[in-house]
Predict the structure.
Amino acid sequence: DQQVKQNSPSLSVQEGRISILNCDYTNSMFDYFLWYKKYPAEGPTFLISISSIKDKNEDGRFTVFLNKSAKHLSLHIVPSQPGDSAVYFCAAKQGNKLVFGAGTILRVKS
Amino acid sequence: DAGVTQSPTHLIKTRGQQVTLRCSPKSGHDTVSWYQQALGQGPQFIFQYYEEEERQRGNFPDRFSGHQFPNYSSELNVNALLLGDSALYLCASSLSGHTQYFGPGTRLTVL
């Protein structure tokens, strides 16, 4: 039972353009969401989070949008840079644990 | 400011053996969580330790056990290793349930 789904295994974007990574969830009890970035041979790095009382949170080039009625969130990266190439994980907080999606590989081409 | 550290980096064991993985949390953090990440999947929650007690546990068998020490560092023990236990084991630390910050992981291979 996959409660957090990232349906796009990979995404390729040109440098300078917008990257949009999507995430869907099934459990309406989730009230806090996070995005992590992971490079090979490193642990996940926290990027940005959003509480369910908000529908948008911005931090520099990164913006997360939450649509509670659709149980959908997205991460926008503008402008995309080659150093953004990594695996991006969406996660939902359930009690004390994080429930992760399977990840989306982002490739930013220069 | 040191982040989350884990040891060892890599480990090779054979089926039936036991393994211990170690984690030191980020300075100022009091909570340690452990995750297992299989190839091509997202991390799966194993358990969380706070005040030296297991606070929450995921869907993992009793072969997986842990400990937290007074200095907040933690160990993950896995007994009777199976081939399916081969994975990247990630430790994350946080301050009283806030954002979790991950270490680089320990790559365990079971032959």
